Amino acid sequence: MPNEILIPELVAASSALDPALNSALSSPLGADYSVWSMIFGSGPVVQAVLIGLIVLSFLSWAIAIAKTLSFRRAREASLEFAELFSDTRNFSRLDDAARRLAASPLARLFSVGYRQMNREIEEGRTAAASISAVERIMKREELNEVFRLERGLTFLATTASAAPFIGLFGTVWGIMTAFHGLGVPGASSTLQAVAPGISEALVATAVGLAAAIPAAVAYNFFAVALRQFRENMDRFNHEFLSMVREG
Question: Which residue has the higher pLDDT, 193 or 20?
Fold first, then answer.
C-alpha cells in the first residue's frame, strides 16, 4: 500500500523537474563558457582593452627575459673583472681584460678612467688636475652605465601600475553594456540575462592582473639588482682613484 502511494508522487515530481532541468541545460550558464569564448564574445571596447593588455604583457615578458640575460652577463663579467682587479695592479693587463669583458660595467668604467689617465699624462698636467679629471669622467660614465642598465624598467613599472586600471576600465565598460541591455524593450530582466555579459567583462580585470603581477615582480627584482650594480660601481670608482693617487 505505501508503494502505491509513493509511485504516483515520484512520477509527478520527476515530471515537474524535467522542464527546469531542460531549461538549465539549454541556458548559457549550462553551455561551454570557456575563457576564449568570453573574450571573443565581448564587445569591441572590451576586446580593444584585452588586446592592449595582451600586448603590454608580451612586451613586459620580452623585456624581463632580455634584462635577465643582460644582467646575468654583466654580473658574471663583473665578478671576473673584479677578481683580476684585486689580484693585479698592472693597468695594461687590466685594460686587455676590460676589452674582453666588455659586458661588465666595471670593465667599461676602468677603460674610461684608464684612457683619461693616459691622456692626462700625455698632456703633462699636474697630479691634482689629472685626478680631478679622471674622477669627473668616471662619475659621468657611471651615470651612463646606470641609464643603460635601467633601460626598459620604466616600461615594467608602468605596466605594473597601469594594467590593473586598464583592465578595470574594460570591466566597468562591459558591465555598463550588460546592464544597458536590460533597458531594451522585450529584454529579460533576470540575472541570467546579464550574467554572461558580466563574466565576459570580468575577464578584462583578470587579464589586467595577469599582465601587472609579472611586471611588478620583474621590476622589483631588477631594481634590487640595479642597486647592487650601482654600489659595486661606486666602490670600484673609489678603489681605482685610490690606486691613481698612490701611483
Answer: 193
Tell me which residue range forms the domain holding 45.
Answer: 36-246
Q: Is 88 within 8 Å of 68 (Cβ atoms)?
A: no
pTM confidence score: 0.75
In a domain, 176, yes or no: yes
pLDDT digits (tens, 9 = 90+) for 57-71: 999 999 999 999 999
Cell of 121: 699624462
Residue 22 half-sphere exposure, CB side, CA atoms within 13 Å? 6
Average pLDDT, the chain: 79
CA distance to 77, 142, 186, 239, per residue, from 155 (Å): 26, 22, 48, 34
Query: Are 114 and 91 contacting, i.e. CB atoms less than 8 angstroms apart?
Result: yes
Alpha helices, DSSP H only, in the chain? 2-26, 35-40, 44-87, 91-100, 105-123, 127-149, 153-180, 191-246
Domains of the chain: total: 1
Percent of the chain at pLDDT > 90 equals 42
User: Looking at the domain assignment, is residue 16 inside a domain?
Assistant: no
